[in-house]
Amino acid sequence: MPDPTVPPGCLTRSEGETEGLAAALASELEPGAVVLLSGGLGAGKTAFVRGLARGLGIEPGEVSSPTFGLVHEHAGGRLPLFHADLYRLSQVEAADVGLDDERMTSGVLAVEWPERLSRDVPGALRVRFEILDETSRQLTFDGPWPARPHSIR
Q: N or C: which end of the chain has fewer CB within 10 A?
């Protein structure tokens, strides 16, 4: 049964709106939060992570897709942000890319392309991105919702 406090979806009409939504969510996240981001190439996953960074007090300009580094750590905010991109990997264990590193429980872990993981991540908030047109995205949410629903409207 879906969690009634989780908004079923949200339409964003620009990259800035996507970032703003994520920034509002980030203000409610606690250490150990995991956010899984699914969607096609160019769907807005990295923009969402930039918004998480901004909401955590981290310079969003530092955020880029870590496709070749796998995991980037961004510090300097209320909580550290760990940003993983599993796009170029096949099925992997979280341990194989360091996602089970104890340091990550001190901050927020955002994972792009989580379907590459070989197992589910219990307790994670899943955000799915659907490209509607050049600038609009439909985001759907599933899993524990840390934010008060009004904080992201």
A: N
Instruction: Decide: helix, strand or coil at residue 92.
Output: strand
Total of domains in the chain: 1
116 within domain boundaries = yes
**4 occurs within a structural domain:** no
Q: What is the pLDDT of residue 39?
A: 97
Residue 90, domain member (yes or no): yes
Residue 72, domain extent: 10-143
Q: Distance (Å, rounded) from C-alpha 98 to C-alpha 120?
A: 16
Tokens representing residue 62 in the block: 């530092």
Cα(99)–Cα(109) distance, integer angstroms: 8
Q: What's the pLDDT score for residue 153?
A: 35
Residues 6+ apart with CB under 8 A from 53: 26, 59, 60, 62, 63, 74, 77, 81
Region 17-32 average pLDDT: 93
